[in-house]
Amino acid sequence: MRQQLAESFRGKSRDLDFWIHTFLFGSLALAFWPLTEWFAASAHEQSRILHALMVLGLATVFLIRFGDVAIQEMLSLNESSRHTLILTFLLLLAGFLLGFLSSRIPDNSQSIASFGISLLTVAAYCSGIASGVLFVFGEGSKKVTYTVCGTFGIFILLSSFMSAADWPLRTLAGKWSAEALSLLGQNTELGLLSQQNLPPKLILLVNEYPFHVASECNGFGIILTSLLIAVLLGFYKGLTPINLTLYVTAGIALGLFFNTLRIVVIVLLAPSMMAHYDLMHEVVGGVTFWGCLILTWVLLKGPTKDKTA
Question: pLDDT of 33-73, one tens digit each?
Fold first, then answer.
């Protein structure tokens, strides 16, 4: 692929249209830089977003490796790249018009308008990325490009809801873990610990051992990642809305199950491994995280071998 890109660049570098198109995509990248910077900062500050992004990248590699992608007509504004670029500018225009109109609507509708502008901006951002990728790699990458960019757009939107989803997911994880531990014969109790000038803590009491169900225990990372894999494979296979919903439901269910399993295993091992609690916590978290993702990929029949094999 690198050789093809180098050869294509040598052939296109003498063409004025190539440099005009390159300048156009460079300008678009600068226009979207604030959104890129925000997302990069979020990934840096929250490891769950970074891990999900890494898994999405790994899944993309699998689709490219086993998806029969044909690299052709590189570095050219082909039909798909051109149409996607036009869509990008239309979405940006729609967002600008909605922002202009929102200044003339009642205050109680401002939040709806802001949400609509955010949706249009994210859609334009992903459409712009898709257009750039199609420009570089050609029409043969269209299926994988649309699949990954569509999934990435959903990823950005879901990442913005992380703070709002934290407490409900933590509560759900605590309740499910308490129920599972009770079925295993453990004495459990779930409650809130209130401290002056500090936010309340969700405490899971197991056989008199207190465990703080912290933000890291809410399962957002593993749920988000398994959901993204389900969406990625659903888009790639061109599923109907009903089947795509089933895929998404399966991804969420697997994420919730493995997060509960992670908490249960950590709680059961903790009394005998307090001297190495942090190491045990990381090992169990890593095993359940990757176990969930591998199982999701296998159950939803993600590609693992060449189509010609």
Answer: 998 898 888 777 777 778 888 888 999 888 888 877 777 77
Q: Reduced to 3 states, what is the DSSP secondary structure of residue 236?
A: helix
Torsion angle (degrees, nearest 10) of CA 284, 285, 291, 294: -160
In this prediction, residue 108 has a pLDDT band, given cuts at 50, 70 and 90, of: low
As to burial, measured by CB atoms within 10 angstroms (0-12 exposed, 13-18 middle, 19+ buried), residue 260 is: buried
Taking the C-alpha atoms of residue 78 and residue 85, their distance in angstroms, rounded to an integer, is: 10
Tell me, what amino acid is at 66? Answer: F
pLDDT at 162 over 80: no
Return the DSSP state at 145: H
In eight-state DSSP terms, residue 60 is: H
For 220, the token pair is 């957002």
* Residue 212 bridge partners (DSSP): 203
Q: Which residue has the higher pLDDT, 129 or 219?
A: 129
Which secondary-structure segment (H or E) carries 191? strand 188-195
* Residue with the two structure tokens 């079925």: 183
Token pair 């939107």 is at which residue? 157
| Residue 292: exposure state from Cβ atoms within 10 A (0-12, 13-18, ≥19) | buried
CA distances from 224 to 80, 123, 180, 278, 286 (A): 30, 19, 22, 24, 15
| Phi, psi dihedrals of residue 76, rounded to the nearest 5° | -140, 145
CA dist 132 and 17 (Å) reads: 15
pTM of the model: 0.87
* Whether the Cβ atoms of residue 292 and residue 261 lie closer than 8 Å to each other: no
pLDDT per position as a tens digit, 117-127: 889 999 999 99
Residue closest to 115 by CA, chosen among 97, 130, 95: 95
